[in-house]
Specification:
This protein is mainly alpha-helical and about 350 residues long. It has a single domain, classed as Farnesyl Diphosphate Synthase, CATH 1.10.600. Helices cover about 70% and strands about 0% of the residues. It has a two-stranded antiparallel ribbon. Helix 7 packs antiparallel against helix 9.
Length: about 350
């Protein structure tokens, strides 16, 4: 599936700003970060290209442009949210015991969990340092302080969402409402933060800023629901993870939560028995996928993702935005719900 053009328009500038934040930092700790960001291999040798879509910084810069702002001035904030996102990924991989991300070994699987925690913690601190560069862009001090507050609150919500996500793995009483509460924090918080920061740095209109925050919130829900879809029905070639990987990890993703609410009789008992096991084997994955198929869970997940997509599009169309940028925001929203990776 083709990436929206907005990803390419900002990509070189985002990458240059990220590299600038890490420039001159030469200890092995920073080489771990450069590895995670896709700039070097595990021996520190440069590699071509970079990994990751830079979704959140792209949304931030597009939001800034959409409200009539100069997007270059928002680059420090875009860099900061990308560093926050990547710090969370390093820690997620540790907590989930994931050995592969973006078709490469994870940081902890090469350097060990203690050092990977150090890399993640340091990357979080670098995000704060990156955000301080807003002063170099002549952003008013009041807006700088507000931007710090917005990002810090989003970080807290992200970590709180991760707490719930992990705690749900050992519970069998999680409902759809519980799930939505969790992903609103874990996934939607940083996407909403990105759109809010972009609007803040490009406009003084509080209604516009609130509107793009609301758009980011529902778009973040749609994004995570699509991720949950790919976690069960995606292909390893596209996602970098084996088919059914979320089932093996006993993640309470939306398809599983839906199945636990809707299954009855033998199917319900089988599902609960599988999720009480210490280790889920291949035949268990097949059994769960069979139950999901019987409940038409795949169609339900697709419908839910498109429900939130529709709400995000309504939010976009209700905000006075630069027309060309508004169309790009709509294209980005559709991409997030239709992507296969």
């Amino acid at each position: 599936m083709r990436l929206p053009l907005a990803f390419e328009r900002y990509r070189c500038e985002i990458d240059a700003e990220l590299r600038s934040v890490l420039a001159g930092r030469e200890s092995p700790l920073y080489e771990m970060m450069r590895y995670h960001l896709g700039w070097v291999d595990e021996h520190g040798h440069p590699v071509q290209g970079s990994v990751g879509k830079c979704l959140r910084p792209t949304l931030l810069l597009l939001a800034c442009e959409a409200v009539g702002g100069a997007w270059h001035k928002a680059l420090p904030a875009a860099t900061a949210v990308e560093l926050v996102h990547n710090f969370s990924l390093i820690h997620d991989d540790i907590q989930d015991d994931d050995r592969e991300r973006r078709h490469r070994p994870t940081v902890w699987s090469i350097w060990g969990k203690p050092q990977a925690i150090n890399a993640g913690d340091s990357m979080h601190t670098l995000a704060d340092i990156a955000l301080l560069r807003l002063g170099d862009q002549c952003v008013a001090l009041e807006k700088q302080q507000r931007a710090h507050h917005i990002m810090s609150e989003a970080c807290l919500r992200l970590v709180e969402g991760q707490y719930y996500d992990i705690s749900y793995e050992n519970r069998l009483d999680i409902g759809v409402d519980d799930y939505l509460k969790m992903i609103e924090m874990k996934s939607a918080a940083l996407i909403a933060c990105s759109l809010e920061l972009g609007a803040l740095l490009g406009s003084d209109d509080e209604d516009v800023i609130r509107g793009l925050f609301a758009c980011g919130r529902v778009l973040g829900l749609a994004f995570q629901i699509r991720d949950d879809f790919l976690g069960i029905w995606g292909t390893q070639k596209k996602t970098g993870k084996p088919s059914g990987s979320d089932i093996r990890r006993k993640k309470k993703s939306l398809p599983i939560v839906y199945a636990m609410e809707k299954a009855r009789g033998t199917a319900k008992r089988e599902l609960l028995n599988i999720y009480q096991k210490d280790v889920i084997e291949g035949q268990d994955v097949d059994a769960v996928q069979g139950i999901l198929d019987a409940l038409k869970a795949k169609s339900y997940i697709e419908e839910e993702a498109h429900k939130y997509l529709k709400r995000s599009l309504e939010e976009i169309r209700g905000i006075p935005l630069v027309p060309s940028a508004a169309l790009e925001l709509e294209e980005m929203a559709r991409f997030l719900v239709e992507r296969d990776f």
